[in-house]
């Protein structure tokens, strides 16, 4: 059975154990976002979808704004399914 994520806010992602990783399409740098810090800064009710977060992100390595986000659940990380390539 598959489920569609309903974690539309930062607070819901924290509550239900999701992680959001920012990925730079320019230099391939990736980093997990600090969701509690984002909730503190933007509010727990702030959207966690691509269009809500990406305009606020910039790559710390190259300064690029061509950012994508990847949503994973902590259970996927425990099972080794959430590995990202290191370039």
From TrEMBL:
<protein>
    <submittedName>
        <fullName>Uncharacterized protein</fullName>
    </submittedName>
</protein>
């Amino acid at each position: 059975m598959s489920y569609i994520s309903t974690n539309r806010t930062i607070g819901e992602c924290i509550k239900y154990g999701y992680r959001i990783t920012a990925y730079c399409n320019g230099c391939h740098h990736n980093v997990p976002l600090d969701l509690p810090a984002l909730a503190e800064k933007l509010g727990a009710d702030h959207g966690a979808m691509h269009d809500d977060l990406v305009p606020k992100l910039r790559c710390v390595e190259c300064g690029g704004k061509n950012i994508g986000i990847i949503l994973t659940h902590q259970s996927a990380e425990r099972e080794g399914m959430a590995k990202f390539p290191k370039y």
